[in-house]
Structures are given as structure tokens and as C-alpha cells.
Design a protein that fits this description.
- By secondary structure, the protein is an alpha/beta fold.
- It contains 16 helices and eleven strands.
- Strands 8-7-6-5-4-3-9-10-11 form a nine-stranded mixed β-sheet.
- A hairpin with a 4-residue loop joins strand 1 and strand 2.
- Helix 1 packs across helix 2, helix 7 runs parallel beside helix 8 and helix 13 runs parallel beside helix 16.
- The longest helix has 16 residues.
- It is globular and about 65 Å long.
- The N terminus is likely disordered.
- Bound molecules: S-adenosylmethionine (SAM) and iron/sulfur cluster (SF4) (2 copies).
- The site of one iron/sulfur cluster has 13 residues, from loops.
């Protein structure tokens, strides 16, 4: 299938989901990914360690015994035979062995960790080298049940027509293409994706194609039954935007009271097997509430993050600038949460290196079918309704910004923190209409976060 001799074939991509439930292997013969469950994953792991068939049998039986998994001896032996035959038939890609072995060295870690695979720079480089999309961001709805004052998307009023949004068939076509291109992760966003009547169909279609499916939502339509359903379908991760700690803040930011509802979801979310991220856009109305929200999520063992670098210019609309924190408010928050918690490791980019690789191994499609390098960096006018997605992905336009090197950026070339700063070209484009002048607001925030390194 065109990829036979590619470097991608030399790796064994193992996406692993929580609690050793499923490993993903790539089958050369059928040219597709397959998911195998807990015991199967352990067999693959044991095989990777170079163990003989007998040793694998022994290992798995003793593991099943230790973990009190009720399973017949015959079932284990048959499965081992099946999987080993499969592995020996060279139908499997051998992987990022190093990465897996590394995660094994720490006994407390899960055997195969999807996050490690999905976040692996090595895998990203590999996909970029093959010009394959490792990850795709799809906005399935332009509509939303909130009207957030900070939202970079222009949310149409409830009366507007949604008929122009991607249809289920169009989404399936995108998913089929992504599968053909070995995509690993699909993020479903919007607007608010949960307001689509066929939302669950979309999720099912994506999971059937073995992607690690991430859902971005404001959480308003989530409830216990739906969370359980998403979990049973096999959703990999839910990212829920939480706008504030009380109803007054919610009302001010999105026009709806949802704070109490979200609080009732936290204990349910803490028990699910899906990965969960609760996140807050830092705004003038909620920045003082961040430490309390962090504490509340921690009390449920839930991961919490906040996004300090908001884009103050909308994509299709003017925004009230008072909504966003002033730099002194941001400074208050940085001092409150501790500068180190916001700092990232130095990432030394050579003078010839671009500062953003969206479009190299990932891309975004909006609800009208427009394709961009990422949800933030929206340039170009390519649309899947008048050009094939394959052609768009193969075009130079989607990678145009890779020609811009770090040292081409005005003021950044002589900046002492340029190796720490993310310098989002999408924010630059929104703020100044060009990719060469960094967004003054993000620049100011970066200088506060890395004050000690200036
Ligand atoms: C557009 S929303 C769509 C998904 C869902 N409705 C939600 O709110 O999570 C996706 C993400 O974009 C973020 N976002 C919206 N406006 C933004 C802005 N001006 N700057 C940075 N992030 C923004 C939201 O906070 C959210 O995390
Ligand atoms: S909930 Fe999400 S999509 Fe809706 S208005 Fe808010 S940020 Fe935008
Ligand atoms: S802090 Fe400002 S000047 Fe320095 S690298 Fe970042 S955007 Fe450029």
C-alpha cells in the first residue's frame, strides 16, 4: 500500500490505554491496526522481551493468577499460540521498542502507555518524515450551547442554519482517509460537539477505526449515563472546559449557569477509565479562582490545567479586550501558582529550525470543511468540499509556515528566552495579520513566566 518500504513499517506502534486493557499493533498484511486486550498485550510484551513460547505461557499464567483474572489455561495457551503465530508471520510492526522498554524499567508505570506513544517526539518525527497525519483535530459543530465571551470561534446564533456543517458521511470520509494514513489520534471538537444529534455515531465511527479518540467539550450535556457510555465505547480522553468556580462567573463568561452541574460530574469523572483533563481558560473574571479550582480537582485526583495564553483577537469577530487578564493580573497568578509550574524545559532550536510543526504530523478541519495546519493557525483557503483531502494534505500550503525560521521572527531572534517560548504563529497571525511579528500579549506573558531567565 505504498508504505511497504517506509520507515514507519519498522516500528511497532503500541498505543496503550489505561489499566493494561488494550495494546494496538499494526498488521502489515491487512495494512491496519488491531486492538488486543489485556492478556494479549501482556503476550506481546513478553514476546518483545525475547521470551520463548513456554516462558510466555508461564509468565501469563502466573500473572493471570496474581491479578486474580479468572481465565482458563486453554484460553491462555490458545491465545498465545495465535498471537505468536501472528507475530512470527511478520504481520506486526516492531516498534518503538526502546520507548516501551523504558516504561518497563519503572515498575510503577503501566506496561504500555498510550500517552507516551502519542506524546513521543520520535513518533511525531516519524510521521512528519513520512508526511502522514499522526493526529487530526475535527470541529464537528460550528454551533454551541454557550456563548463564551473569549471564544475565538464565532458561534452562530441558535436560529442560524447548521446545514452547512460537515455531514456524518463527510466525517466518515475524513475518518476513512485518516485510517488509510495510519492516524493515531482524532480530536473531536467544535463549537460544542455534544450538541450534534449524531455525536455518538461520530464517536463510534472513529473508535471503530481504532483511533485514540479525544473529545473537547464544555461539559454541559455530560451526565453519568453519557460518561459511562463514552467509556464503554472506548473514548481515550475527555477534555472539559471549566470556566469558573461559581455560577456568577459562568454567567459572565458564557451566559449559562453550569458550575454546579460540572461539580456534580467531578466524582463521576474521577472513577472513569478514560483519561480526563479539566481545563480553564484564564480570564479577568476567573483568574483568582484558578488555585481553588486546582485544589478541587486535585481532591478528586483529576488532572487540571489552565491556559494562560488566550488569544485576544477572534477568528471572525472582534472581542472585548477587558475579558482578558492584564499582564499584572497574570503576574499575580504566576506568583500564586509558582513560576516553575508554568515553565517548560529549554528546547534548543537551531537558527534554521521552524518554530511550529503543525501541518507536519497534524492538522485541523473546521465544521465547514476548511483545512488548516492547526485549530489556532488558520491560514489558507483549502476545503474538502472542493479539493480532495489527500491533495490538501499533500499541498505545500499547509506547511508554508515551516519556511519561517525562529530567527526570522522580529524581536525573537535576539530574545534570551526564545528556546523556552512557544511563539505561536497562529496567535501572531490573529494579532498582527502576519506570521513574522509575535503576538504582543503572548510575548508579554512569556516574559513574565521566564522572568528569571531574561
Ligand atoms: C473552541 S472550544 C470547543 C470545544 C468546547 N466547546 C470547549 O469549550 O471546550 C476548544 C478550546 O478552545 C479554547 N478557546 C476558546 N477561545 C479561545 C481563545 N480566545 N484563546 C485560547 N483558547 C481559546 C476553549 O477554552 C477550549 O478549550
Ligand atoms: S463552549 Fe467552547 S465552543 Fe462554545 S463558546 Fe465556549 S469556548 Fe466556544
Ligand atoms: S518572549 Fe517574545 S520576543 Fe522572546 S521569543 Fe517569545 S515572542 Fe519572541
Amino acid at each position: 500500500m505504498g508504505l511497504k518500504m517506509s520507515r514507519l513499517n519498522k516500528i511497532f506502534i503500541c498505543r496503550y490505554f489505561k489499566n493494561l486493557n488494550q495494546a494496538i499493533v499494526f498488521n502489515k498484511k491487512t495494512d491496519s491496526y488491531s486492538l488486543i486486550n489485556g492478556i494479549g498485550a501482556l503476550i506481546v510484551y513478553s514476546f518483545l522481551k525475547g521470551n520463548s513460547k513456554n516462558k510466555i505461557e508461564k509468565n501469563i499464567i502466573s500473572l493471570a493468577y496474581k491479578k486474580k483474572i479468572i481465565i482458563s489455561h486453554k484460553f491462555i495457551v490458545d491465545n498465545i499460540k495465535l498471537i505468536i503465530n501472528w507475530l512470527n508471520a511478520e504481520s506486526i510492526l516492531f516498534v518503538d521498542k526502546e520507548q516501551i522498554m523504558k516504561s518497563q524499567s519503572n515498575k510503577n508505570e503501566k506496561l504500555f502507555n498510550a500517552k507516551q506513544i502519542l506524546d513521543s517526539k520520535k513518533i511525531r518525527r516519524l510521521y512528519a518524515g513520512e508526511k502522514l497525519p499522526m493526529s487530526a483535530f475535527i470541529e464537528v459543530s460550528s454551533m454551541c450551547n454557550f456563548q463564551c465571551i473569549h471564544c475565538y470561534n464565532k458561534i452562530p446564533s441558535k436560529k442560524s442554519k447548521t446545514s452547512e456543517d460537515l455531514s456524518l458521511n463527510e466525517i466518515i470520509e475524513i475518518l476513512n482517509w485518516l485510517k488509510e494514513k495510519k492516524c493515531l489520534r482524532v480530536t473531536i471538537s467544535g463549537g460544542e460537539p455534544l450538541i450534534r444529534k449524531d455525536f455518538l455515531n461520530i464517536i463510534k465511527m472513529a473508535i471503530d477505526r481504532n483511533f485514540a479518540v479525544v473529545v473537547f467539550t464544555n461539559g454541559y450535556l455530560l451526565n453519568k449515563a453519557l460518561i459511562k457510555h463514552l467509556e464503554s465505547l472506548g473514548v481515550y480522553k475527555l477534555e472539559i472546559s471549566v470556566l469558573g468556580a461559581n455560577e456568577k462567573t459562568y454567567k459572565e463568561i458564557c451566559g449559562v449557569t453550569a458550575s454546579e452541574h460540572i461539580k456534580t460530574l467531578l466524582p463521576i469523572l474521577s472513577k472513569t477509565n478514560m483519561r480526563i483533563r479539566i481545563k480553564t481558560p484564564v480570564l479577568a473574571m476567573n483568574y483568582r479562582q484558578i488555585p481553588a479550582m486546582e485544589k478541587l480537582c486535585a481532591s478528586y485526583g483529576l488532572r487540571y490545567t489552565y491556559d494562560i495564553t488566550q488569544m485576544r483577537k477572534g477568528l471572525y469577530r472582534n472581542m472585548n479586550q477587558n475579558v482578558f487578564c492584564s499582564l499584572s493580573q497574570i503576574d499575580w497568578l504566576i506568583n500564586k501558582v509558582g513560576r516553575e509550574s508554568l515553565q517548560q524545559e529549554e528546547d534548543i532550536r537551531g537558527p534554521n529550525s521552524a518554530n511550529c510543526y503543525s501541518g507536519a504530523y497534524s492538522f485541523a478541519i473546521d465544521a465547514k470543511g476548511n483545512v488548516f495546519p492547526c485549530a489556532t493557525l488558520r491560514y489558507g483557503s483549502q476545503n474538502i468540499r472542493n479539493k480532495s483531502i489527500d491533495e490538501i494534505w499533500g499541498s505545500d500550503e499547509i506547511r508554508m509556515h515551516h519556511n519561517i525560521k525562529v530567527d526570522d521572527l522580529k524581536t525573537c531572534n535576539i530574545c534570551s528566552i526564545k528556546n523556552y517560548c512557544k511563539m505561536c504563529p497562529g496567535a501572531a497571525l490573529l494579532a498582527n495579520g502576519n506570521l513574522y511579528t509575535p503576538d504582543e500579549y503572548q510575548c508579554g506573558i512569556m516574559k513574565l513566566i521566564y522572568k528569571d531567565k531574561l
